[in-house]
Amino acid sequence: MSAEAIPAISTHRLTKFYGNRRVVDNLSLNIPQGSIYGFLGRNGAGKSTTIKMLVGMVHPDSGSAHILGDNCERLTPRTRANVAFMAEGHPLYVGMTIRQIINFTRPFYDNWNAELLEQVLDHFGLSRKARLGKLSRGQQAQVALALAIAPDPELLILDDPTLGLDTIVRRDFLESMIGIIQRRGRTILFSSHILGDVERVADRIGILVDGVLRVDCPAETFKTQIRKVLAEFGRQPPPFAGCEGLISSRQVGTQLELVLVGYGREQQAVVERLAPLSVEVVELNLEDAFIEYTRGPRKPLPQFFSGSQTP
Questions:
Q1: Is there a contact between 203 and 219 (Cβ–Cβ < 8 Å)?
Q2: Phi first, then psi: what are they for 157, rounded to 5°?
């Protein structure tokens, strides 16, 4: 297999239990090099546990995970040097200045792009004399990003990197991150609770539901396949027995509100047989599609897989 064909991240039936709870359930995933992958799921879905297994902080109970071709349980020093990890909350030694933490971090890496680091700090307007504990959360995130990319990593793994940042700082952070990393052909895996951020930058998404990978496809594919259908009756809606692709249904006043995957002629005919006064089909953005998909009833959900991914 050529180096170009090796995925940046691959897992095969990766599984992790905490007690009797299966937090990550047979996760099989392939993320090609050079992609920006949004890793999504509600709180407790298994995102952070998966990320910790990828970087070797947590060992799986079964299955396997590889980054840049190396088994995540036995990462070589060379691979570790090519992977940058930003943990949630951007933990830093707050008693240090920016210059001190640079001098502390640099010896851990053979490859260190001091010029790139200085350019990033200048972009954010950060003084090297500033003490980390005196910086805002947004500025600490900026320092963490600068330190993460200074070794010029091939893969950047981010666990909710914009958590707690205000809108303007968050957008500047993301745009800077993407501009710096992607123009070098690097790969980014990031989890986030802010779906607008994911929609803006990710070319592919994965969604975990109760530890199971239910979605692995281009963000646009997921978005365009989910529709909300509002059937107005002017009275209490009749009972709805369901149809192909139904995620959820509920009564809202005199409306029947349906969330469907792949709404087409078959589903349209089922709705029309209920004799509604009107039917409105609503397109959803990524955030709304994610909410509707993940808050549906606990029954088998329609899966979204494309490319070489395996359910």
A1: yes
A2: -115, 120
| Helix axes of 137-149 and 167-182: crossing angle, nearest 10 degrees | 10
d(CA 7, CA 9): 5
Q: Other CB atoms closer than 10 Å to residue 157's CB: what's the count?
A: 26
CA distances from residue 209 to 43, 101, 214, 216, 295 in whole angstroms, order as listed? 10, 38, 6, 12, 10
| pTM of structure | 0.83
Question: How far is CA 288 from each of CA 181, 285, 291, rounded to the nearest angstrom?
Answer: 28, 5, 5
Q: What is the pLDDT of residues 42-93, one digit of tens each?
A: 888 899 999 999 999 999 999 999 999 999 999 898 898 889 888 776 678 8
Helical spans, DSSP H, in 151-277: 167-182, 195-201, 219-225, 265-272
| Listed residue (113, 110, 173, 174) closest to 140, CA to CA | 173
Fold (topology level) of 3-217: Rossmann fold (3.40.50)
Helix or strand run (H / E) with residue 72 = none
Specify whether the CB–CB gap between 51 and 157 falls below 8 A: yes
3-state secondary structure of 280: strand
**Ramachandran angles phi, psi of 268, nearest 5°:** -60, -40
**Total count of residues recorded for the chain:** 311
Burial of 2 (0-12, 13-18, 19+ CB in 10 A): exposed
Domain ranges of the chain: 3-217, 222-305
